[in-house]
Recover the amino acids of this structure.
């Protein structure tokens, strides 16, 4: 799956049901998320992160945070209360427009579109914190995922903290995701996305993994230091998911 295909899928979801595409709990599908309740989940998530940050002792500075795969800025907003500047990056221009609209009163939040499999838009050692959860798991091409992980290390400050989540194992029976494949094929054939989502009950969101050993190999190549690897249960009970806490 190319980066353009991935982008098209997220543009569709940003149009169809953006908040559910971000936190996909069944009871909130078809635009049932209350916006305040939705953003509250971001506050809770960042408070949880800060209990871990306090134990790890990194980052040392609080100038700039990156929320990679920011969606509508659920976490960018919460991070903006802790950092001088909080930058959200997303592959979907519609997610970025929504993020700008929904967070217009959070003046130290900035949102940037990135349509590439690299993060050349940022210079080396730029961020004190890089945070990315429930994003890499949706990228089907492992080469793209690996590229982002290398790039995270490159743009992380020496005293910074990189935190990212990705499943390490999906049982073979769950790897073929027929609904997502059907959505993509019909969409490529010109079918209307609203019809596929609302009437056919299909969506393009996929779940992927990268074995822990692979992730460690990339991090070692980049001379990153692994502070901790946690089992996080973020991808459901049948999928093993890890969160990596990294510095350099
Ligand atoms: C499930 S949402 C999670 C949003 C956010 N991390 C949160 O927890 O609120 C996944 C987001 O990642 C974005 N995304 C997917 N692939 C991406 C990529 N290659 N680069 C940047 N953003 C990406 C999608 O557009 C979507 O907004």
């Amino acid at each position: 799956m190319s980066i353009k295909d991935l982008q098209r899928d997220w543009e569709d979801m940003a149009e169809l049901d953006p908040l559910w595409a971000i936190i996909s709990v069944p009871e909130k599908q078809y635009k049932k998320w209350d916006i305040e309740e939705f953003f509250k989940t971001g506050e809770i998530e960042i408070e949880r992160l800060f209990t871990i940050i306090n134990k790890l002792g990194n980052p040392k500075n609080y100038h700039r945070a990156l929320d990679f795969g920011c969606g509508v800025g659920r976490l960018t907003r919460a991070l903006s209360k802790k950092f001088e500047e909080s930058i959200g990056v997303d592959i979907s221009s519609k997610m970025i427009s929504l993020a700008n609209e929904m967070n217009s009163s959070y003046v130290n939040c900035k949102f940037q579109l990135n349509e590439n499999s690299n993060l050349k838009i940022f210079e080396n050692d730029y961020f004190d914190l890089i945070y990315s959860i429930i994003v890499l798991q949706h990228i089907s091409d492992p080469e793209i995922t690996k590229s982002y992980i290398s790039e995270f290390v490159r743009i992380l400050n020496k005293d910074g903290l990189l935190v990212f989540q990705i499943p390490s194992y999906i049982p073979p029976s769950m790897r073929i995701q027929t609904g997502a494949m059907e959505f993509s094929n019909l969409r490529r054939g010109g079918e209307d996305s609203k019809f596929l989502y609302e009437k056919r009950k299909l969506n393009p969101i996929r779940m992927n993994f990268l074995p822990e050993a692979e992730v460690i190999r990339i991090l070692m190549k980049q001379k990153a230091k692994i502070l901790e690897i946690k089992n996080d249960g973020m991808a459901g009970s049948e999928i093993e998911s890890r969160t990596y806490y990294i510095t350099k």
User: Anything to note?
Assistant: The chain has one domain: 3-247. Residues 6, 10, 22, 69-71, 74-75, 89-92, 95, 114, 133-135, 138-139 surround S-adenosylmethionine (CB under 6 Å).
